[in-house]
Amino acid sequence: MYITARKKDTSKLTATMTLQTLKQQIDQGALPFMYLVTGTETALIQKAHRLFSSIIDPAEQEMNQASYDFAEVGIDPILADYLSAPFFGDHRLVLVENPTFLTAGSKLNADQEKAFLSAIERPVPGNLLVLFADDATLDKRKKVTKAVMKEAELLDLPALNERQTKQAIQQFLQQRQVTMDNAAEAELLLRTQASYSKVLAELPKLLAYAKESQTIDLAGVMGLVPKESTAQAFDLADLVLKGQKGAALELYHDLIKNGEVPLRLNALLLGQFRLLLQVAGSQGSDQEVGQLLKVHPYRVKLARQSLGRYQPTKIRAGFLSILDMEIQMKSKTVDPVFLFEEFMVNF
Predict the structure, then answer these.
(1) Which of 94, 32, 34, 38 is nearest to 63 (CA)?
(2) Could you tell me the superkingdom of the organism this chain comes from (predicted)?
(3) Which of 20, 195, 251, 301 is least enclosed by beta carbons within 10 angstroms?
């Protein structure tokens, strides 16, 4: 049996709240009545879902566990479920995705807000409410958001940095007695932009590839792991800045043949040049700058490496030319491939 209680002074705990801490709370049977889960690392958020679900006995989950998307159902069914007593069990678990009422873009009406605040101020014993939100969009000035952040246990699951992703890969492979050479690891990180969630999604294929040799090599990664669109945009921007017109045009044509839409490809290229300019004017660690710009720290690292090779004036000129190309794509009936070819010739 778990004990749910109002949140006490947890200022020290919230600074270090992790999935391990959550598991300890579950194992010890002492849980707060509400959690606010933030972060962008999909794999960790999915693990949090599994941990929360473990609170309810599998035989009782159909009756005492519910998941809602606030953007689809609104607050009324969520409150009705959360305020109901557990059905033939000790606990009821209510999981809520997209609680946009905590952001500037959405709000509850006066009666709904009053009902929600009353529910979290006087929680039903044994019931747990878990809100999964994006911290970057929370409006921390709103009364309802302030109340949630005051009463809830805060669990933040940000994107893992490159070092943490490498450690996770090594631990995953060691548990399965498989090795990966340095070249393969570097290429895997490049193709997934060092996203832990994306790496995790690709590892089963690589394990199958290494079933006999127990080794993942560069050929396996290059043959099985597709490049993320951001990685492709980085490659294209690098060729543009190097002035390698033939190679840039060849890659551009290949991407179009593989289904990339010219306007989207142009937007990716524009975004890469914008990132280079933003990173050039920023200070702090890759992690800090990544959080500020809302991009993965690995992209900041790659951008800084590029800035060591190219003059900011050239990057700025490229950005303006690509921006002009986008305007022409949207306003004229000119072949976008021709526009890119013209850009490469002139640049």
Answers:
(1) 94
(2) Bacteria
(3) 20
The tens digit of pLDDT for each residue in 41-85 reads 999 999 999 999 999 999 999 999 999 999 999 999 999 999 998
Cβ 321 vs Cβ 343: under 8 Å: yes
Q: Is the distance from CB of 224 to CB of 202 less than 8 angstroms?
A: yes
CATH fold of 229-346: Zinc Finger, Delta Prime; domain 3 (1.20.272)
* CA separation for the pair 13, 153 (Å, rounded): 9
Question: In terms of DSSP H, where are the helices of the chain?
Answer: 11-16, 19-28, 42-53, 61-64, 70-73, 76-82, 110-121, 143-151, 162-175, 182-192, 196-209, 218-224, 229-242, 245-257, 262-280, 286-293, 297-307, 312-331, 336-346
Which among 315, 164, 153 is positioned nearest to 242, based on CA atoms? 315
The sign of the dihedral angle between the CA atoms of 35, 41, 42, 46 is: negative
Rounded distance between C-alpha atoms, residue 102 and residue 139, angstroms: 6
For CA atoms 252, 258, 262, 268, give the dihedral sign: negative
Q: What is the DSSP string of 130-189?
A: EEEE-GGGB-TTSHHHHHHHHHSEEEEEPPP-HHHHHHHHHHHHHHTT-EE-HHHHHHHH
> Residue type for 277, please?
L
Model pTM? 0.75
